[in-house]
Amino acid sequence: ENTQLLSPISGVVTARNYDNGDMPGNMPILTIESLSPVKMIINVSENYYPRVKKGMGATVKLEVYGDEVFAGKVSLVYPTINPTTHTFPVEITLNNANQRVRPGMFARATLTFGTKSRTVVPDQAVVKQMGAGDHYVYVYDNGKVPHNKVQLGRRLGDEYEVVSGVPAGAQVVVAGQNRLADGVEVEVVK
Fold first, then answer.
1. How far, in Å, CA of 137 to CA of 125, rounded?
2. What is the pLDDT of residue 24?
3. What is the model's pTM?
4. Closest C-alpha to 60, from 73, 52, 69
């Protein structure tokens, strides 16, 4: 009755650790949480450290709302990387004007770094050289099929992203590569 508690933020009381007349200890008397905006902390792989910037957009999906997307922004990029997990924390702020997002909800965030155009080939077209770990693709070129050494990117379902080695729009062999040799003449059958 002799003390007035004033919160530095507007929000909702989510915990009351003491009743009137109790002698407070090490715990806070009240916990206040702001619901607008809300912040989310994610851990991002250190490979992306140079690309994550304060102010960039993020999309957030909450398990409770299915595929509904909430817009957020990166509000803080922590300057240190965890040497055990090789990740760094990133804080994302959601406006949450309608207060549908609540602290403690399970969420997934997506940061978009732009797009790149790459060639993709069916996984049947990729031939792995035993022992060396190199990958090749037989590419049709004026009646012949040289096998081009390729650098593969990500696997996308039943296709591979090709970083180098296959020109865009090229025809590739997807069956019978074990009967071919580098540069043999072939006839395309439709």
1. 6
2. 82
3. 0.59
4. 69
User: pLDDT per residue over 101-117, tens digit each?
Assistant: 988 899 999 998 888 88
How many Cα neighbours within 13 Å face the side chain of 20? 4
Tens of pLDDT, residues 12-21: 888 899 888 8
* Tokens coding 2: 């002799």
Q: Which residues of 108-126 are buried (b: 16+ CB within 10 A; e: fewer)?
A: ebebeeeeeeebbbeeebb
